[in-house]
Amino acid sequence: MEDFYSFFIFWCLIILQRLIELRIARNNEKWMMEQGAIEYGHEHYRFIVWMHLLFFLVFISEKITLNRGISDTWQWLLFVFILTQLVRVWALFSLGKYWNTKIIVLPGANVVKRGPYRWIKHPNYLIVSIELLVIPLLFNCFLTAAVFTLLNIFMLSIRIPKEEQALKTYTEYEGAFHKCNRFLPKLLKKYDN
């Protein structure tokens, strides 16, 4: 029973974090739209929202119905999870008012090249990809980890090209990120600010 309480507290904390992030995203969206920003990819956004909602429902369902216990490697998985949360906050603060869950681009805005964006183009998508794997694995929810990792790969294959096209159209994105990879940093090269 103690395992279930740990799981439930963990699950609630993640839900609370997501709700806070949605509030921040809405405030940022309002500010950006007032500045003349343009939204891209709204046709696929609802599928991303549904994917994340289903992730939490399937995760809790697999845990309860299949009576999944905590992983034997929970300490390592929890360490990876905490590390991703630190990078998540770093990415969010690096983008500031430009951070959003939607693709919203302010024409002519300077592309953010600080924080984790100094080394990779999409640190937040990398973080979400790791979370969708690590969170369920903490509680041996292998089905959830596999299904939502695959769904996320599919969704990112749609979302990232849309986002990059919007950024290339309205900002100096291509020139700013010509030395960076999408997900893996090039650690051997030094970049100028």
TrEMBL record:
Q: Give the stretches traversing the membrane.
A: 6-24, 45-61, 73-93, 125-158
Q: Does the keyword Membrane apply?
A: yes
Membrane as UniProt keyword: yes
Known InterPro entries for this protein?
Answer: ICMT_MeTrfase, Metal_cation-efflux_comp
Keywords (A to Z) from UniProt: Membrane, Transmembrane, Transmembrane helix
Question: How does the record say this protein sits in the membrane?
Answer: Multi-pass membrane protein
Q: Origin, by domain of life?
A: Bacteria
Broad class of where this protein is predominantly found = membrane
- Where in the cell is the protein located? Membrane
List, alphabetically, the PANTHER family matched. Answer: BLL3993 PROTEIN
Name-wise, this protein is Isoprenylcysteine carboxylmethyltransferase family protein
Upper classification of the source organism reads: Bacteria, Bacillati, Bacillota, Bacilli, Bacillales
